[in-house]
Amino acid sequence: MASTSIPGSSSELTITVERNPSKSRLSELGINSWPKWGCPPGKYMLKFDAQETCYLLRGKVKVFPKGSSESIQFGAGDLVTIPKGLSCTWDVSVAVDKHYKFESSSSTPTPSSRCCDHT
C-alpha cells in the first residue's frame, strides 16, 4: 500500500493519499454506498470541520494547505484522507467526481464561496 502525506499547517495536519487501493480494500470500506460529490475545474477554498475520506472516480486536484509552502496532488483512483481542521485551497484541473465519507455525518466542508454542491 503506497501512501503520500505532507504536513498541512502549523498544527501538522496531514493529508494521506493511498494510490490505487485494491478492490477488496474499497469493498471493505463500503465505498459504493458513500454519497457522491463533484465539481468543475477551478480553485476552491475549503475548511474541513470533520475528517473526510474520499475515493476519486475521476479528476485531478492539487491541494495547497493554508500556512504551508508545500502541495499534494491526487486524482482518479486515489483514496484520500483529509484531517479535521484543515483549511486549504483545491486547484481542480480536471473535473472531480468522488465518493466521500465524513467522520461525523453531520459535518461537511465549508466552502469560502459557493463553488460546488454536495448531491
TrEMBL record:
Stored InterPro entries: RmlC-like_jellyroll, RmlC_Cupin_sf, UGlyAH_Cupin_dom
Lineage: superkingdom: Eukaryota
Ranges where the (S)-ureidoglycine aminohydrolase cupin domain occurs: 27-100
CDD domains found in the cross-reference section: cupin_TM1112-like (cd02227)
Matching SUPFAM superfamilies: RmlC-like cupins (SSF51182)
The protein, known as: (S)-ureidoglycine aminohydrolase cupin domain-containing protein
